[in-house]
């Protein structure tokens, strides 16, 4: 039929490796442009939204950030809000990796790539939001170590550049290696990915910690200047990440028509039951400290929750967020919620949206209101900010969709043991099957 | 030779589907090109020389000379007037300090206006590095201050607090900058390389004194109003998308002149000088007046002092 070596045949020559790898990439590209009608419609809609965003961004670069509603008082807005939230989403994927690798949860092992691919998509979105926020994206190269002047280790932003990019590379390597080996039909060699997985666990914690340090290291912004910020970031990330993954698993189930990963979903729900309560506890702790103490340092919190001097643009946002998080917690704590898809999906959607508001607009904007000289200037995103934000989310969802599709479809599981094409046999097994919380 | 040996079994209608896909992809690419077309209108405003320009502190004298002439040429092309852009270096043995007498400041805001004109600020936004707060007598609480007052000054129950860059000894804005586009000069002035700043605005978040201003759009100034006496690190017209701040009028003060805000002050409330010179007026103020700095608890050691003399 053809002269090329059969897929999976061990190739020893470097040329053979390159040929196989390009074939792998071609297969990925092919799979990315092929699907059923639902796939085409979904991708077309995302492309359209992404194009609107690209156009808005081009206009913003040309005419300046004046097209946003940011100003010298509120100098970060919707972009940095989304950036902060998405760092958490990227870190949240680790809540699948930890049960899979540290607790040897076999079933979680089979689907852990859903979380790792989410990390990739989320970090790409993070980087896009940072670029969208730059006044001079053309000077991006000033940030490159060696070429520009990298203010490391003094500036926390340089730490963030490092941890985010390394986290992206780690996950690209892990997912890419596993999929490539599956494509070749060869068992994955744990030496080539398990160490990276363990590094990625620590790294996931670091990305959100460093991102919190960006804000809490600023002495002039009392609203952010709290030691609770990094723990709160992590707690909320470990709610939003699992919430998104549970929804993703449900969507995949509908698409591939199977019923898999019920064990992992239960594990994720159990994790969320704890993390969402820790998150709420930290909110209560912070609110108590702010309001019981009072004084000028608490004006941002007063502005956020109740409005200040007649300015209350964020009050509806934060109470919506709180209500959503409390409702999600109540639903999640309901016994047997995993058996009720509608309730579970609602809980996840509520938790996700609630934390998007809290970690985004509810965290970034009040840091600037009132300003450091106590001027009251409010902020609501402009149309162009919403367009660019929607565009970046569309690109992120496209990346995630394609990555999942490739992981599921391109590599029909030889052993047919997993729906994601990663053969269970190739994963390291633990001698004892450790319970995953069930 | 087989071109795609490893692709799935050809399906029925693959060629038609392939054709449609090719059409869709072409359409998508065309739409993308159209979507980002505004970038082609922006790109010509950034010359290749500007794109490749090195950090100010890495420029050789020859490089710098070429850049200054290029900036003059670009100003002429874009703003229609001839300007001189010099490079004023920090003099040795000098550390600039500023003091402001709150007992006699009357809130007229001529300092803010002088800054606006001297430093080629954007006209429509009426930008200035100085904000003057009308404060309630008996309190230093900025929350009770008002920057938008519009009535004859001074009001009997008020005092006035002008705030500009405090030129901190430990400037948080400098620490946070990821690309070292802002730094503290030997004479104590915190400056920005407007051609190096990437516009992330982290410094603006870090500054506790609201001293930094961002160029949200390209500054607009009529040719006749442009101050032609400019310097690279100070009042040259800033590019869009970059940060700027008070630089103690270094194009004047490094030449032995006084800041524009001081010259404009009708009350004599402002005292500027060399902190290293024991006989300077500012040293006299620091030695004999009841002096304080804003937000001392933050430990940033501002070099801008306030005092009362009654």
Description:
With 438 residues, chain A is an all-alpha fold. Chain A is built from 14 helices and no strands. Chain A has helices at residues 14-32, 37-63, 78-92, 94-102, 106-133, 156-184, 194-216, 229-256, 262-293, 299-306, 315-333, 341-359, 361-364, 383-410. Chain B has a domain at 47-89 and 112-264. Chain B contains ten helices and twelve strands. In chain B, a hairpin with a 5-residue loop joins strand 5 (182-184) and strand 6 (190-192). Chain B starts with 13 loop residues before the first helix and ends with a strand. The model of chain B is unreliable at 1-5 (pLDDT under 50). Classes of the chains: A mainly alpha (438), B alpha+beta (310).
Fraction of residues in β-strands of chain B: 15-25%
Q: How many beta-strand runs of chain A?
A: 0
At CATH level 3, the topology of chain A is Formate dehydrogenase/DMSO reductase fold
Distance between the termini of chain B: 96 Å
Distance between the termini of chain A: 50 Å
What characteristics describe this protein?
A: 438 residues, mainly alpha, Formate dehydrogenase/DMSO reductase fold, 14 helices, 0% strand, globular, disordered N terminus, B: 310 residues, alpha+beta, two-stranded parallel ribbon
Q: Topology of this structure?
A:
The complex is a heterodimer of chains A (438) and B (310).
Chain A lengths: L13 H19 L4 H27 L14 H15 L1 H9 L3 H28 L22 H29 L9 H23 L12 H28 L5 H32 L5 H8 L8 H19 L7 H19 L1 H4 L18 H28 L28
Helix pairs in contact in A: 1-14, 2-14, 3-5, 3-7, 3-8, 3-12, 4-5, 4-7, 5-6, 5-14, 6-7, 7-8, 8-9, 8-12, 9-11, 10-11, 11-12
Chain B lengths: L13 H22 L2 H5 L5 H5 L8 H19 L4 E3 L9 E6 L8 H9 L12 E6 L21 E6 L8 H5 L5 E3 L5 E3 L9 H5 L5 E3 L14 E3 L11 E3 L4 H4 L6 H5 L5 E5 L6 H8 L1 E3 L11 E5 L2
Parallel strand pairs in B: 1-8, 2-12
Antiparallel strand pairs in B: 2-10, 3-4, 5-6, 7-9, 11-12
């Amino acid at each position: 039929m053809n002269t090329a070596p059969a897929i999976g045949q061990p190739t020893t020559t470097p040329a053979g490796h390159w040929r196989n790898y390009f074939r792998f990439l071609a297969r990925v590209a092919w799979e990315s442009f092929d699907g059923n009608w639902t796939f085409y419609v979904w991708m077309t809609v995302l492309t359209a939204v992404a194009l609107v965003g690209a156009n808005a961004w081009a206009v913003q670069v040309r005419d300046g950030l004046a097209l946003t509603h940011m100003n010298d008082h509120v100098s970060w807005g919707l972009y940095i809000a989304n950036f902060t939230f998405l760092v958490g989403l990227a870190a949240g994927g680790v809540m699948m990796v930890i049960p899979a690798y540290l607790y040897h949860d076999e079933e979680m092992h089979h689907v852990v790539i859903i979380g790792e691919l989410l990390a990739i998509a989320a970090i790409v979105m993070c980087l896009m939001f940072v670029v969208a926020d730059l006044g001079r994206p053309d000077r991006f190269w000033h940030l490159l170590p060696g070429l520009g002047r990298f203010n490391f280790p003094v500036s926390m932003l340089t730490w963030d550049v490092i941890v985010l990019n390394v986290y992206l590379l780690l996950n690209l390597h892990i997912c890419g290696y596993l999929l490539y080996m599956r494509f070749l039909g060869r068992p994955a060699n744990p030496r080539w990915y398990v160490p990276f997985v363990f590094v990625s666990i620590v790294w996931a914690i670091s990305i959100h910690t460093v991102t919190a340090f960006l804000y809490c290291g600023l002495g002039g912004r009392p609203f952010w200047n709290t030691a609770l910020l990094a723990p709160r970031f992590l707690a909320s990330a470990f709610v939003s990440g699992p919430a998104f993954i549970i929804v993703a698993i449900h969507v995949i189930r509908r698409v591939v028509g199977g019923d898999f990963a019920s064990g992992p979903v239960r594990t994720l729900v159990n994790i969320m039951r704890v993390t969402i309560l820790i998150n709420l506890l930290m909110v209560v702790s912070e609110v108590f400290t702010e309001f019981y103490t009072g004084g000028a340092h608490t004006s941002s919190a007063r502005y956020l929750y109740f409005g200040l001097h007649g300015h209350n643009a964020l009050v509806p946002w934060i109470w919506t967020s709180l209500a959503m998080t409390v409702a999600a917690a109540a639903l999640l704590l309901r016994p047997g919620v995993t058996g009720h898809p509608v309730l579970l999906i609602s809980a996840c959607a509520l938790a996700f949206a609630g934390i998007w508001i809290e970690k985004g607009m509810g965290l970034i904007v009040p840091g600037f209101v009132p300003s450091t000289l106590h001027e009251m200037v409010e902020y609501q995103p402009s149309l162009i900010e919403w367009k660019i934000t929607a565009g970046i989310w569309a690109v992120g969802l496209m990346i995630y969709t394609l990555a999942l599709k490739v992981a599921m479809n391109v590599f029909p599981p030889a052993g047919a043991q997993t729906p994601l094409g990663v053969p269970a046999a190739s994963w390291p097994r633990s001698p004892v099957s450790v319970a995953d919380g069930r | 030779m087989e071109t795609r040996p490893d692709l799935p079994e050809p399906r029925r209608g693959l060629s038609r589907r392939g054709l449609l896909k090719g059409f869709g992809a072409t359409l998508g690419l065309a739409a993308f090109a159209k979507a980002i077309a505004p970038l082609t209108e922006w790109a010509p405003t950034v010359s290749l020389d500007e794109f490749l320009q090195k950090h100010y502190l890495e420029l050789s004298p020859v490089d710098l000379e070429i850049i200054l002439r290029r900036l003059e040429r670009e100003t002429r092309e874009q703003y229609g007037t001839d300007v001189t852009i010099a490079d004023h270096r920090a003099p040795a043995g000098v550390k600039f300090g500023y003091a402001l007498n709150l007992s006699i400041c009357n809130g007229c805001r001529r300092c803010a206006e002088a800054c606006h004109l001297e430093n080629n600020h954007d006209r429509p936004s009426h930008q200035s590095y100085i904000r003057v707060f009308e404060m309630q007598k008996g309190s230093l609480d900025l929350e009770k201050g008002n920057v938008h007052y519009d009535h004859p000054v001074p009001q009997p129950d008020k005092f006035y607090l002008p705030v500009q860059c405090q030129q901190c000894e430990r400037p948080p804005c400098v620490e946070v900058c990821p690309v070292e586009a802002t730094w503290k000069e030997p004479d104590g002035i915190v400056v920005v390389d407007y051609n190096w700043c990437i516009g992330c605005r982290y410094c603006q978040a870090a500054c506790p004194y609201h001293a930094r201003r961002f160029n949200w759009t390209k500054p607009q100034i009529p040719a006749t109003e442009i101050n032609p006496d400019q310097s690279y690190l100070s009042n040259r017209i800033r590019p869009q998308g970059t940060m700027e701040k008070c630089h103690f009028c270094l194009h004047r003060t490094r030449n032995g002149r006084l800041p524009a805000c001081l010259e404009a002050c009708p009350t004599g409330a402002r005292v500027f000088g060399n902190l290293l010179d024991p006989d300077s007026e500012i040293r006299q103020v620091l030695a004999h007046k009841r002096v304080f700095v804003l937000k001392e608890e933050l430990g940033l050691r501002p070099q801008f002092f306030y005092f009362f003399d009654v």
